[in-house]
């Protein structure tokens, strides 16, 4: 089965589609190109078409949010090797592994046994408009990148497109930050 078919068979997807997750009002998930655009999941504007300034700003701000998530995963993967390759166990055991490593990570941090160095995570230089990749990104992985294939086409609802456009308007309007234009130049 392809990733899209598997995604649509998950309980999580069904709960999202039925709006049964009791998420905060107007909550959205931050996704990349591999995920569908939906009213609950934002993805970047396509880079294959002419991208306007507003869309570039949106893509940057979405990317910035995704980097936080990627850094969190990178920190865990740098500490626990199980995340450096596809996990080949049942879903129940996978859930247990994730919960155990998160609990261990938090315990190590609480007891100051394992402290992250600043070089471990990505860093933005707002004055120069550059992003320095964290050292976790150079950790070798075995087959993890190959698992990330696009889940859907660009068949999304008008509501999802309108929602993304409203976020884009917000990011160039009341939600503007002073450095964002330097970061897309």
Q: In sequence order, what are the helices and strands, one letter per element? A: HHEEHHEEHHH
Strand content: 5-15%
Biggest sheet, spatial arrangement of strands: 1-2
Structural class: mainly alpha
Helix content: 40-55%
How many DSSP H or I helices?
7
Q: Major β-sheet, in short?
A: 2 strands, parallel
Number of strands: 4
Low-confidence stretches: 146-153
The pLDDT mean sits at: 83
Topology:
Elements: H1 3-8, H2 11-18, E1 29-30, E2 41-42, H3 53-79, H4 91-110, E3 123-125, E4 130-132, H5 144-147, H6 158-172, H7 180-184
Parallel strand pairs: 1-2
Antiparallel strand pairs: 3-4
Keywords:
185 residues, mainly alpha, two-stranded parallel sheet, 4 strands, 46% helix
Report on the structure:
Residues 2-106 form the DDE Tnp4 domain. It comes from Euphydryas editha (Edith's checkerspot). By secondary structure, the protein is mainly α. It is built from seven helices and four strands. It has helices at 3-8, 11-18, 53-79, 91-110, 144-147, 158-172, 180-184; strands spanning 29-30, 41-42, 123-125, 130-132. The strands form two sheets. Strands 1-2 form a two-stranded parallel ribbon. It has a two-stranded antiparallel ribbon with strand order 3-4. Helix 3 (53-79) crosses helix 6 (158-172).
């Amino acid at each position: 089965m392809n990733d899209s078919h598997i995604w649509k068979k998950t309980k999580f997807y069904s709960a999202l589609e039925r709006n049964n997750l009791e998420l905060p009002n107007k909550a959205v998930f931050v996704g990349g190109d591999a995920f569908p655009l939906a009213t609950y999941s934002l993805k970047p504007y396509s880079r294959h078409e002419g991208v306007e300034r507003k869309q570039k700003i949106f893509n940057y701000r979405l990317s910035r949010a995704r980097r936080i998530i990627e850094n969190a995963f990178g920190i865990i993967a740098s500490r626990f090797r199980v995340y450096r390759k596809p996990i080949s166990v049942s879903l129940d055991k996978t859930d247990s592994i994730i919960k155990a490593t998160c609990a261990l990570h938090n315990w190590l941090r609480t007891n100051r046994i394992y402290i992250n160095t600043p070089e471990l995570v990505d860093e933005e230089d707002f004055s120069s408009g550059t992003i320095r990749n964290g050292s976790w990104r150079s950790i070798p992985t075995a087959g993890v990148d190959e698992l990330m294939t696009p889940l859907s086409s660009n068949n999304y609802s008008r509501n999802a497109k309108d929602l993304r456009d409203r976020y884009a308007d917000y990011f160039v309007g009341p939600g503007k930050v002073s450095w964002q234009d330097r970061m897309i130049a």
